[in-house]
Amino acid sequence: MHSSAVGHFTLGCVLEDQEHQVAKEERETPTTDSMPPLLRQAIELFDHQGAEPAFLFGLELIICGLKTT
């Protein structure tokens, strides 16, 4: 059961990252005037850092949660 949760999380992250890479190449330069500042910052951060920091953070949360159960 635990490995299933980790597996589903990993697969979801991989699919999300692949989609983001395609979308990043296809999207036009966003107009920052019409975008909420926090959303703009999140997109810029994800564009520069990639998915790895978010994946590692989420995986750590899952593992810590499993340790407490």
UniProtKB/TrEMBL annotation:
UniProt xrefs under InterPro entries: Repressor_TetR_C (IPR004111), Tet_transcr_reg_TetR-rel_C_sf (IPR036271)
Top-rank lineage group of the source organism: Bacteria
An example Gene Ontology biological process: negative regulation of DNA-templated transcription
A Pfam cross-reference name: TetR_C_1
Tetracycline repressor TetR C-terminal domain residues: 5-68
Keyword Transcription regulation: yes
Keywords on record: Plasmid, Transcription, Transcription regulation
Name under which the protein is recorded: Tetracycline repressor protein class B from transposon Tn10
